[in-house]
Every structure is written in C-alpha cells, then in structure tokens.
User: Fold these one by one.
Assistant:
Number 1:
Amino acid sequence: MRNYLAGGSLLAIALCQPVLAQDQAPTELDEIVITDGLTPVELRKSGRAVTVVTGEQIEKNQVRYVADALRMVPGFAVSRTGSYGGLTQVRVRGAEGNHVLVMIDGVEANDNAQGEFDFGSLIADDIERIEVLRGPQSTFWGANAMSGVINIITKRGERNSVRSTARTEVGTDGTWMGAFSTRGGGENFDYSLSGALRRTGGFNISDIGAEDDGDRNGTLNGKFTVDVSPDTTVDGTLRYVNRRSDLDPQDYDTAMTYDAEDYTRSREFYGSLGLTNTALDGALTQKARFSGNDISRFNHSAATGDSWNDGNRYNATYQASYRYDELENQVHQLTAGYEWQRETFSPSHLTETFSRNTHSLIGEYRGEFSDQFYLNGGVRQDWNDAFDDAVTWTMSAAWQIPNAGTRLHASIGTAVTNPTFYEQFGYFPSTFVGNPNLKPEESLGWDIGVEKSLFDGGLVVDVTYFNQNLKNEIATVYDSNFMATPVNRDGESRRRGVEVSATVDFFNGFTATASYTYTHATEQTVAGGARLQEVRRPRHAGSLSAAYVFHEDRARVFAEAVFNGKMQDSVFATFVPPRVTLGGYTVVNVGGSFKVNDTVEVFGRIDNLFDRDYQEIYGFNTPGLTAFAGLKATF
C-alpha cells in the first residue's frame, strides 16, 4: 500500500507541472473556520491534527452513511456488524470506540449505555461539514474525547432566500431512499428543515440460511437562528431518528452468525437552545447553551428474550471570551467557561434508574503573533459525584513559515474517559456485575506534523506523527463461575503511528485526495512481557479518491478505493481460538452525476465494484457489489 501511495504522489507531481505551467490561477477558497477549542479559529491557525469533510464532498460522492465518509479520513478504522444500519464502531488512532466523542449540532450524541456512538444510525444527509479532531481533546470537550472529536454540523438557511431540495433513489437489495429539505430566512433570521427515509432489504449477514437482514432509518432535523438585537442571537436545534435493524445472533461454540428473527429498534432525540451576546465592539463574547439527548433501544432476541434501555444526558454551559488585538502584530484572547452535566440510565434487567452529575470549570488562551505563529492552551477541572474527579490540560501551536508554503503544527494534552453505566452498575445480574469503584481511564498524547503546499496550492501534503498512552484501562474479567466484572487494569496501553494525507487540484476539473495511516496499538504488558495487538485496528490503512468535472461543469465522475490491512479480532466461542486474523481488503467504489438543467440532476453509485469478499468483524458477512441511482431536484 505504501508503494502505491508513493507512486501515486510522484505521478501527481509529474502531472501537475505541465498543467500549472498554463498560468491557470488556483481555485479561490473561503477561509475554513473550525471549532478546535472553546472558540472558533481558522484552520490554518490550528496546531491540532484536523480534517474537515465538507457536505459538498459527501453529496458529490453520493455517500449515504457518515461512517463511510470517515473511512477516507487518516487515523480512522470503521467496523460494521454486517448490513447497513448494523452496529457500526469507529476507532481513532488505535483507541477504543468509546474514546471518541461525537457531537451533532452542539449536542453530545454518545450513548450512555456503552459510552460510544453507534454510527449505524447516522445517515449522511443535510450535512454542512464534519470537523475531525484527532488526539486528546477532553480539556475543551469533556470526557470520552480521549482519541478525538467528530463534530458534525448540519446546514443552516441562507438569509433573504428560500431554497428547497428533493431527492429519491432506488438500488440493489431492495434499497429506496427519499429526502427533502427546505432552507431560507429573512433579514434577521434563518431556518433549515430536512427529512430522510432510507429502507433496504439488505443481504444475509450469516453464512447459514437465506434470510436477508435489512434496515429502516427515518431522520428529521431542524435548526434556526434569530437576531433578537444587533448584539444578541438565539439559536436552536432539534433532531429525531427512528430506525429498525435486523440482526443475526452468534453461536457460542463457533462464533458464527446464524439466521434468526432478531432485531433492534431505537429512537433518538437531540436538541439544544443557545444564546450569544457580543459587547465592547465585539471584544467580549458571551455564550450560554442548554442541550440534551434521549436515546431508547429495544432488542428482540429469540435466544435471550427481549431487553431495553433508556438513557438521557443534559448539559448546561456558559462561557465568556475577551479578545485583545490593540497590540502591534499580536492578538490575545482569554476564555473562561462552566459546564454542568447530568446523565441518567434505565436498563430493563435492573430495577432502578441510575444517575450521575458532573460540574466543570474550563479556561482557554489563544495567541497570534505576526500573523504566522499561533498558540492555544487550556485546563479543565471536573468534579464527578460517582467516581474520581479529574484534571486535564492541553497545548497546541502552529507556525506558518513565511514565503515557504510550509506550516508546522503540534499538540499535547491529557484526556479521560468515564466508566459507562453498564460498567458501573452492571447489566445481567447473574452474569455481568458492575463495579462502582471504577476510576476514569486516563491518557497522555502528543503529535507533531508538517504541512507542505506545492505548485501554488495545487498539491498539499500533511505528515503527522502521533503517540498516546492509556492508563487505568477498563476491561472485563471472569471468575471461576464465569461471572463477569469490569476492573481497572494495571500498566498501560500504547498507540503510536504516522498519518499522511495529500490533496491535488489541477485546476482543470480534476481533483484527488489520498491518505495513509500506520498504527501500532498494543494492549498492556501480559505474562512474559509480550504485548498483544489491539483488535479491529489495522496497522496499515489508506484511501484514494479522484474526481473529474467536465461538460461545462454539468457532468462529474469519481472513483475511490479504501484499503484496510489485516487485523486481529476477538472470538468468544468454545471451539475457536480467542484471537483470529482477518485478511486485508481493498474496496473500490465508482459513480457520477449529470445536471440535466439548473433544477434536475441524475446520479448513481456502485459500491464494491469488484465484489470483494471480506470481513470487518469475525463471523459477519459484508455487502457485495451494490448500486443505486436517482434524481435530485433543487428549486
């Protein structure tokens, strides 16, 4: 894979030279602003490892699930249990799935039960951009932001206009999708409403039997912003997801799946209300926000019976920022914030509702010097009523070397991940007993990288080295009666690696991106001093994407390849070794679109073009060649 990427980079450089020699001007892009702390900042001023996936990229490549868009991001490993809609885990830089925090329009979306977000529910519709921050981020984002943050921002309306979009498509495996959105606004307000329904009959995720396992997902999303005065703005968001996904259980002897009428239903609510006020000619900015989520799940199992759980989380935050820019070639900004969080959880197999509260104080500093050197730092104190308190800190820096087309960036910080409700209080009283004395997991991580721009921005390459540890890791142990209990392990897990990304824009309709990640993630030291590789985290992974726009920008074709190297997986079965090696694979997808006129566009996409047979999780089949085509109308 490394040879392929190196060869592709050399080819890109060679092809760039004659194209750029035609004196074509680089594409003018708007300044990208991201949220890498308590306050937003231009992407070029951030010292953190950041990738921005735009909604335009997602739409043009006809990506239907956010998890599939994240496969193209450096440092990411995605594992889906079979069919679309099945439990989908995302791991960043070799960490666990509950070590990455997911935010949707300012609302924390991680599930209380397992501490992680199930990406099987997240349709890639009506998204403005996805900001991906890698590395420890707990100082500004709280617990569970140990390996990074995935900040998803949906589209808002454009003021003094109204714009609506309708889309429908059909595909293989009995797939159908319909989506509609309307956005607009007036002089002092804007709004956005959208809805999407996707249904698929699926395929058989088991090698036994012939039952197909499908999925149905309905998602509604809305947001608004109102200027109640020249200095004060009120905004709100509301999101609802209702879905049903078919499941197949695993045999306890072989760990292979077999056909059954099992399924899971889930209902997710997310909402927020915020207030922003500026004073002192914009130097002082105050923000207050109240947000919450409610996630309910029902599981039907022929083998173990029905079960359900319901969890919710409420957050209230306040922050004040003062920006001082009256010194020559210097800008200083100080921010102080407070956050309150309350979580509750009700599982079907236990008779009570559990709750816990956290209070936090956060401070942040930003500095800009000579429009080339940028600093950011912060510290956070969490007071938890159900486990140990925690202090986290972070620092980052970026240096845009003048007249060199080179940017250096680096960050370092600590992070924590809190025990889940299942880990604290248990699940099945007869088989899984909780441990109320668990400590939060702790981590220290750092990264350093260089971004190089060549050919007037025609080729941009970024190389980043990262290193992070994990202490007090929570793991499950079994006694002689096979009773399971979570404990904090001694020792430390280690993750280190290299992330490479490249973007090519030939300015003649052809664009390309590439990424490669080497990840060395190991568990704690075991008997004999040997370290085991963490499961479902390949050492080598990468992606390559290319697109060409032609026919007066009305036609577009694209191709992408996702490479996942071989990796270890755990097996919980009697007659199978506890560890197996899953083979590496490369999946190629292609597609295109054509604008019939200013209103109507036709599109299509083929996934797994070469019908590759592979596994992301032991015992679960993955989709073969699938395709869909549809129409989109904008009016």
Note: The radius of gyration is 24 Å.
Number 2:
Amino acid sequence: MSEECCVPDEARRGGTARRVELSERRSAEGSCCAPSVPAELTAYADGVVAEDEDACCGPGASSAVKSTASGESEVRPPWWRDSALLPSVFSGVLLLTGYVFEWSALPVPALVLQGVALLSGAYTFVPGAVRRLLRGRLGVGLLMMIAAIGAVLLGHVGEAATLAFLFSLAEALEDRAMDRAKEGLRALLSLIPDTVRVSRLNGDVTLPVTDVRELDILVVGAGERIATDGVVVEGRSSLDTSAVTGESIPVDVAPGDPVVAGSVNGAATLRIEATADGRDNSLTQIVALVEQAHARKGDRARLADRIARPLVPAVLIAAVAIALFGVLIGDPVTWTERALVVLVAASPCALAIAVPVTVISAIGAASKFGVVIKSGEAFEQLGTIRTVALDKTGTLTRNEPVVVAVHPAPGVTREDLLAWAAAVEATSTHPLAAAITSAAPNAPAAMDVVEDAGHGITGRVGGRTVRVGNARWLNASEQSDTAADMAGRGMTVVVVEVNRRIAGLIGVRDELRPESAETVQMLHAQGLDTVMLTGDNDRTARAIARQAGIAAVRAEQLPKDKADAIAALVGIRPTAMVGDGINDAPALATATVGIAMGLKGSAAAIESADIALTGHDLRLIPVALAHARRGRRIMTANIALALAIIVVLFPLALFGVLGLAGVVLVHEIAELIVIANGVRAARRPVLARGMSTTVAPEAALTTASIQAP
C-alpha cells in the first residue's frame, strides 16, 4: 500500500541522506528532541517520520511514534482511538448511509453522501499521488486516483467512493502495521538516561548524558541506568542487563569489571570510568546497526520492486489501449469502463507490500529476543543458510581460561602445587596466569620474579626456586603420558618445577560454553552442517569440537585462511560464519551471512557482520535461522498471492465479469490478507520461547524495531 515500495531504489535511499541532513541541521540549531538523546539518534528517530511523511499517500497517514520535547515517545493509541483511521471510518460510514438512501429510492441524498465519502477516502492518498506525479514518479495511488475520476465521469460515484474507502482503509491499516515497527527503536533509545552524575574535584555534578566524555567518572546510584560503557573503579553491585542483552540473571560487578550502557544498577552505588562518550557507546552502536536495515534491501524485496516498477506504466498503457479499442469498435463507454476496472485490477498494491511488511515484523521480532539484523538482505539470506561455521575461542568457548586439572608429583600436594605456581604467576600478564592465580587466591608472595618471554616465569617462594612454563622449556618426561593425555583433552599443559625437580602439571583450558553442545545439536536437528574454524592447534581444536559435537574441524587458521575456507564453503552452499574477534572479521565479511557475538565481540567483527547477537547465548543462532526460514516462507507466499491476484483479476476485469466495485473489494481484501500474513512473522519463534531472553518490562521492544528497507 505504501507507494514508497513502488518507486525506484534511488528515491528510497534518499531516506538515509535525509536523516543525515536532519542530524546536521539539528546539531547546528541546537534543537535536539531531548538533551539526553544523541543528536544522530534523535535525527534517526524523527528522520523516519520525516521520510514517511513523504512516502505516505496523503496527510492522513501519521507516524506511530513522535518524539516529544522531553525526549519521551508518544505511542500510537489503540485503533479505536487512532485519528489516522478517522478519514477511512468517516468515509465508510457515509458510504454505507449513502447506499441505504439509494436503496430507499432517495437518489439525491445518496449521491451527496457518496460524494463526501469519496472525498474523505481520497484525502488520504490523492495529495501524495499528485506530489509524486509532479516529481515524475508513478505509484499505486495514481492508478486509484485515475480509476476514481473515471468512475465519476462515467456516473459511478458510489463505486468510486467504494474504491476510495477500501484503498484508504487498507492503507491506514498497513500504516499501523508499519508504524508499530518503529516503536522498538524508541524503546532502545529510552534505555539512555536523560542525565548522569559525574564526579568532579569540587563534588558531583549532574550533566546531560550527551556531555559525558571518555575517562569521566560516573556516579551511578542504586536503581539507576548506566549512561555509557565503562569500567567499575569503586563499589560492588549487581547489574540487570536484561533490557540490553536479554539475559535475565543479574551480573555481579566489582572494580575492574566492564559495564555496558543501558544496564540497571543494583543496590549499591558504583563509580564508573567511562570508556566511551555518551553519544557513542555499545547501545548507540546497536541502534546504528538497526538503522542500517533501512538502507539495504533483500533480493526478494528487489524482485518485488522489479515487478512493480514497470507494472505501473504497463497497466496505464494497457488501460489506454483498451479504451482506444472501444473507440475503434464503436463502444467507447463500455470499454472505457472496462479500462478503468483493468487499471484497478492490475494495480500491484499487494505485491508492493508483500515483502516490506514481513521484513518489518520479522527483523523487529528478532531484536526482541537478542538478534540485531542489519538489513533485509541479511534477513533473507539468513533463511537460505545450509552450513554454519563457528570460531572456537570466544564463540564456542568462554574465552576465560580456567584450571581444569592438577596432577602433582609424588610427595607434593595439590594445594602446594597450585600455591607455588600462583605465587610466581601473580605479577604476570599472560592469559594463563590469571587462571592459575584464580585457582589459588591465597598463595604466598614470591620474590625475585623474572619472566622469560615465550617460555615461562621464575621466582623464589619460601626459600624454594620455582619455575612455571611450557613443556618445551621444562622437560616433564617423567609425566609425559599424563601430559599427552591432558593435551588430548584440549588442555594447555603448564609444568611446575621446584628446586629443579618436576613438582607436577597443571591443565588450563578455555572451557566450552554450557550451551555450545546444545546449540550444535539444534543446528543439526534443522538439517544444517557445522564446521569449526580456529587458529588454535589441531589437538586442542579437535578436543573442543568433540565436546561440542562438531565433526568438521579446520585448525591453525590465520585470518586469511579462515576467509579462504569460508569462500570455499560459500561456493558450495550458503554459509554463515559466527565469530567474535578481529581475526574473524575477514571471514564474517566473506560469508553469505556473518554473525558477530554481540557485546563481547570486537568492533571489527561487529562491523563486518550482517547480524549481531546482543546476548551471549549461542542458542540464539539456531533460533534466528529458524525464524529467518519461516519469514522467507511467508515472503514467498505473499509474493505468490500478490501475483495470483493480478493474474486472476485482469481477465475478469477485461471481459466484464467483475465490475469496479467487485475488483476493488477483492483487491483490498487480498492486500489485508498479505498484511496479516506478513505480521505473522513477528511471532516469537517456538525455539526461543523456552530461553531466558526476556526483556525488562519498562523497555520491552513492543512489536518490531526496524522499518523495512
């Protein structure tokens, strides 16, 4: 119904430029909607409204959500109180009353009422159609306008009013479906507080969140939202991150722990050093990813446009040809009337909305359970995936090495072995050092500590000389079988030597995420193949793969190797790559669909990916894949129905089987069916219903968060 769907891509892409212009103008005028919302995000929130004002069929269409002066969002009221529906309702009531008078043999009042009904319905789409025509654009509204004018000239005022009423009503209902999709983005923006307390030398001061800069010390009280990303420098508390990540379990934080914007602080006051500006943090980056869904389109959306764009002028030419045929055979009235009916019958309204409504609903629903999809193209391609490649470290595993095995030599206790190793590792920055020191938090202090890069570390602990390092540096031949067994189970073997005798072995491993094996099982249950790509050594990679249930493993892969491997897989069948690190970025960009591990992923990975997970639960991947396949099926059904309507109605209209009123009624009912079918894509996937991905009630993403591209 929205004629924007029928215009060239170049016109549609103007929306992005419009948002940029609006952002720059607001920045220059200092007229942001609220001091708490970053200017570029406010421009986006209002830019969608500005774009829609140009795209709607007339002044009757309005946005569901408008930013108020306070920065809050005004949500569209229930349909029975929605002023945008009033012209259509008014037109319908007058039309029905007019027909009652006509059936009562009162033609004059019937004609007056039907005429007013026609004007009321036409008010919602004729002004927009005229504006487009002046810009050289042809749209569905133009076909409806010509058909209505022709019907009036032929004396069929009632049928013209029926056309205007049904088209207006279907348009208004579609606007509601589209507008509901925009509410979710405002919900994300509402997670940013208006103001924030910042610690200064002369005490705490309250500032607009847009004035927060990196390295500022934020003071966050109990129950307050965190304004931007940062690191805790003072205080211990728990954070509710459900509105951002979908995780329902509070996260404990202490000095040194990172925190993300939009999280709600628990019972204690925290002092947080900002690691990002108030207008540029993880939450605004998520919103920016969502915005990109407006700029790109899926293959099927382009297919619908390719059909609809030439169809509009073709229908106009066909209608003129039919009318001329009537002139040639001497019956211009009959064939001109049929030409007008054909004009309506072949209008591609349903085709124009077949994909956008589905994409809006599906992408918005995905954002509700923690999957941010950058574009309609990415959503459609996600539904074609047959192979899923997964990175190991940080994706299948926690990327937090822990001690999982301790094998002391005869005469050495487990506690002593860990204490000696932790004592000398206490000052080391090596990733394995943290795992060992965590396993023995009460270790004694070491002296004369010297680190030998690439090998290990040496120090004195209680009069003993302790060396901790790898098996290449310290010969553990006495426990070689044990070391081989540990390595075979995916552990990194750390050798501990005391006074030049091997005191034992410590096994450190980056443990598999608890849901990794279940995720792989869910993917296999959907008929998808899985493969692991990792830069880790082959033995460790295969051990982790066995635990996860993955048979295909490609280990010791450099970033280019990963990209080449993905390119080879894509050449065989559509492949998704899941990763989180900078080294995964080339592979993510090469894949049919790249999926980044959200908030813990690197900026390069998120930028290269088509999809980002805002939570950390890997089970979101099979959920998203199933969701996309279902959306793709709905899109296919919508396109097929839209084309079938045109194919069936055209000959019926051409040969006079159906009149103008009948064609209009069938056409508009079909469009409502397409809209209703597309909205089904907003339902929460069955696989996601048992997962702990609930969103905080005060910030729930109501239906969908992305306008269809």
Note: The first helix runs from residue 9 to 29.
Number 3:
Amino acid sequence: MDLVPALEEPLKKVLGPPTAKVMAEHLGLHTVGDLLHHYPRRYEERGQLTHLADLPMDEHVTVVAMVADARLHTFASSKAPRGKGQRLEVTITDGNGRLQLVFFGNGVHKPHKELLPGTRALFAGKVSVFNRRLQLAHPAYELLRGDAEETVETWAGALIPLYPATAKLESWKIGKAIQLVLPSAQEAVDPLPDSLREGRGLVSLPEALLKIHRPHTKADIDDARTRLKWDEAFVLQVALARRRHADAQLPAVARKPKPDGLLSAFDDRLPFTLTEGQQKVSKEIFDDLATEHPMHRLLQGEVGSGKTMVALRAMLATVDAGGQAAMLAPTEVLAQQHHRSVVEMMGELAEGGMLGGSEHATKVVLLTGSMGTAARRQALLDLVTGEAGIVIGTHALIEDKVQFHDLGLVVVDEQHRFGVEQRDALRGKGKQPPHLLVMTATPIPRTVAMTVFGDLETSVLDQLPAGRSPIASHVVPAADKPHFLARAWERVREEVENGHQAYVVCPRIGDDEDDPKKARKSAEDEAEKRPPMAVLEVADQLAKGPLNGLRVEVLHGRMHPDDKDAVMRRFAAGETHVLVATTVIEVGVNVPNATAMVIMDADRFGVSQLHQLRGRVGRGSAAGLCLLVTEMPEASAARQRLTAVASTQDGFELSRIDLEQRREGDVLGQAQSGARTSLKVLAVIEDEEVIAQAREEAVAVVEADPELENLPGLRTALDALLDEEREQYLEKG
C-alpha cells in the first residue's frame, strides 16, 4: 500500500526466492508492504483450543488442539520395505469433539516421537470424512512450546494470529515471515490526514500494523482493525470522490424538455398516473439533464417498480431537447423486449416520419448483432441523420460504424453485465459527453451502492405501481415430500385453466453442447448426486407427463435470436401455456398474463436472482405464485436461503441476506472487470457507518485539495489501490 523503499523491498530479497515464489504464486504477495497488509483471519489463544465441531468440510484449516491419543499400526504392504507398512493415527481434541489425524509410510516417524498425549500444537490440513469421522490426512503441525522466560499465564493467554494460508504455506510460516519484516512497519506512510486521524481517535498506521500482527490483548486487535477499516473505506471513497469531482468539470449539453413536446404528448396518453416514487425520481433526473455537466445517476429499484417507464421519460425529454437517446441492454432477448414495450407504450409517437405518425413523433430503432444487412443499414442511416430519436440495442451499438447525429443520453440496463470499455466507447459517441443513467434491477443495499457505484448519484424506486398483485412464494421439498411436486404441476394446470400462463425455470439447457465432463463431475459430487435440471429434459417430461395436453415451449440462450423472439411473441400473445426457460427471462420480460413460476433446483440460484426471476409473475391484476423446488435437506444453508426468499418480497432486505452469505469480493467483483476487491478488513454490510463517514470525509478532502498535493501519503495509497486496470475502470466508468 505504501511506496516507501523499505516496504517496496521485494520479498525474495528478504525471505529468499523459494518462499517468495510460493507467496507470489499462491497469495499474490510480492513486496514487504504486501506481506504487512496480509492480515490474520482470526486469532487463537495458546491455552485455548479450537471448536472442532465447527470445521468446514473440504477447506484448508488451521486449528489449535491437544493430542488425546496416538497409535501406530503395522500392516502388510507390497510397497513398503520388508513388506510391512506403517500408519500413525493420532486423535486430537478440543475437550469436547475429536478429530482424527492420519500419517502414512515414512511420514510417521517424526510425528510418532513428537505428538505424544497431552501435547498442544497447531495443525493445518484439509478436512475430509473417512468412515463417517472427520479427519485430516498428513497435516502439517507446529508444536506450541512456551519460551523459557514465559510464565504459564502469559504463555497460555498469548494470542496466535492465524493467517489466510494455503496447503503450500502454513499459517505459522507466514507468521514467521511477518515477524521478520515487522520492523519495516515503522516506515509505513500514513494515508489518513492528521486531522481525520486525531478527530476520529484512530491509532497511526505503523501502530495498527504492529497491533494486528502482534497483539497483546483483544483491545489491540480492535484498535488495529478499526484503523485499517478506515484506511480501506477512506482511500476507496477518495478515489470515487475524485472521479465525481473530475466528471463535474466536464462540459455537457443541457437537455430541457419542451413544455408541449414529445414528453407531454406521451404523458397525456398514459392510461395510469405515475407513482409518487416515479415522479420524485423523474424530477431528480430532469434536474440533472438540465445542467451543463454530464449526469451520472444510478436508478435502482424493486423488481417491477417501473424503472423502464422512468428511463423512457428521460429519453423522451432528451429527444424533446434536440438530442438522441440510446438504451444499452445486456442480451438480444432483452433489447427486443425493451424495443417492443417502448414502441407499444409510445404508440403513434414512435412513428416519426411515417404516415399516421403524430406531429411530435420520433423514430425508435432496434440495433442488434444478428439483424439482417438491409435492416441494419437503415437503422444506421436513421441514427446518423437524426431521424431516429431513440435507439435500443445490445453492445452492437458500440461498434465503430455506429454514428449518432447528436447523442444526448445513454441508458445502461443491468450495469454489472457491461464491461467498462463498452460503456466508455458509447460515451465517446457524443459531440460532448452524453448524460448517463444506469439502471440495475437488483436492489443494492446503500453501503454497496456507495462502494461499488460510488461515482454515481443514486435514485431509488421502492414503491410498486398500483394494480400490481402480491406474489405468494413457497418452498417445495421434492426429496422429503414428492407429492408436493405433483401438487405444484396441478397448480400450474389450474392457472392455465383459469386463462393464465406459467414459467418453469431450470439451471441448465441440457443439449449435447453441455459439457459432459461438468455433468459427470457434479454427478459424482456427493452433495449434488446428479447434474442440475435441464430445460430440454424437463420440457419433454412435462409435455409427456403432468402437463400433457398443454402447449409447452422452450427458451434458452443458445437458440437463434429469431427463434427466441418468435417464442417470446407467442408467449406474450397467450398462444403458449407454459414456457420452460433458463434465466434468459430473468430481467425485463413482461407478460402480465403469466401468473405462476416453478423454479427447479432453486437452491442453485442466488437470492437476488431468485427474487429477480420471481418478479416475472404477478405483473397484471391476478395474484402471482412462485414455487421453489429443491431436494436440499431442511437443515442445509441452501434450504434456509430459499425460506428467506419465500418469506419476504423486500428486495433490499434479500440483497442484504445475499451479501451476508457471500464473500465481499463477489460484491465488488460484480461491479466491473478491473475492479478487483481491495477490501481485507472492511465488511461492506457490517461497516455501513464507517463507509458513510469515510465518504463525507473524502468529499471534504477532495473539494479542498482535488490533486491531494498536501497529502503525499494518501496519493501513495491511491496509486497502490488504483493499479493500472483499476485506474482505467475509474476513469472510464
């Protein structure tokens, strides 16, 4: 984190090439500074023992335990000299549970002498099950001996840091390497301004590094972690604040809608009134569009809260003001769906230049990679002449050939599916930087929005439009109660008999192109027992079995775009009763007559994804039903996740649950390519207060000194955070 000579020192000079090579390859650590910022995952007290019952399966663990028993077995072996092999079985205990250690062959001699009953040691290895008992095979170990001058009390109470380790490098070896470089911590340059550190009562960075690696008390650990959390939150928020500050200096064309133009004509023909939330968010967007700096706004909201309507009104306002608007969708299915619904909502207002078109009308064109040459040529011509005010498309919009007459607004749907370069390329197509509106369909907790999308102002839609029906969700435990699944298909039939339609969602397509190795691997996997349910197989079984006589069709990502579009059109028109699909229907698909959804192997989807899928039903006046089918046992974490989804419709609450169950890196990793997580001690959900305060402090610092000329330590920390890739991410975003 610090470009100081001592901390820049390559590890191979300090630790020797072999250890340095393992650290670089397996832990990504190259310099003394990197190693000092490799913090302990947790601490054990030397006198206390680890709870063995809580160990995770198939993970590399480090435990403190006591040897209860050691037995050497001799057995016949053709591989061993003199035909006799040896196996040492050591039982270790935490006072309650027990764990078996096994050593074979030549590896038994040293542990046989050292691991005597009563001995305490650190043991590291991978947890597996053998004969229904937990075991570590050939673990590495380090005996815990008190130094001669230590009293029993200080020895027993001493805290042992346990580091994120690998099979190639045990925690205690990392600890010894850190002890070697720890004196260099004194030279760490502090990124926090003195006033901030003193005002918040935080220890200095050198002191924090000493305390996190060599704590004397638990209070030392708390002091260090509090301080290091501030570093991570503050440096990241400064990066984002500088980005916002730089954007605010860019020029843009102000886009103010005409009082009686296209937007007014559109609003007049709406058959419903906008929700309060939609009106409030629209005002925020229109205020931004009216300024001479580019808008950078994130529009997030509940599934079905009417984000597309808000985005469309922003596009119409831009067209009113003489500009063009582009909407970027992540898939062809979604681009076609958006194009269809926008044209439907606008009616004759989308028929600019055509007979029967309204006087305020504009042209709405679709541009995707699979369009025919003639249609594509016409769409490109409409864009460059300005004939088309609105274009909706996939990343085909970004290609060099696509030229705009005057691009004023870019709407990006489902932000995290777009690479940075794509967003950047589209922004470069305007005469001046266009305004940017990013829509995300997955509600994001405030802290994550501040961390991942911290360069964007945020608008939230948390009200559902009037007339939306509640969705009843239930878990269907197919393994425990097979008759529940039979009942699920009966419910689908009942919905169809009542004039409605249903979706069935599967995790896999299931054609020959599926990787047979993958299917075989998961079939062998004890926890999974079989490959995930597949669209083609399930559709076939349903059509021949429980849904015999109904019109069942399939939809998945490998179909030709024209075929996908035809399937969606038939479903939207009510010609198809049941659509068996992959997650291609996850966002933007709007068929108000579809009231039921059955999600097969629901435990294989994330919480937010399930919420997203469920939002496809209950979009009309009839109540929605979502059935989550799983074979997971009741006590499993996967089953509890499904119960959480069934119990609440609040997407913001579900996204919190989702994030608490996943690692932080996933949260930040989804932001963009290039935004690898730099968070080691900061937990996005738990540390809400630190992030909010750090953001305030960062804004104040950047406003006072945008180039950070008076804060060399902070500049250094920023340079380390913004490696080349990440720098591009922040600049291009």
Note: The longest strand covers residues 60-76.
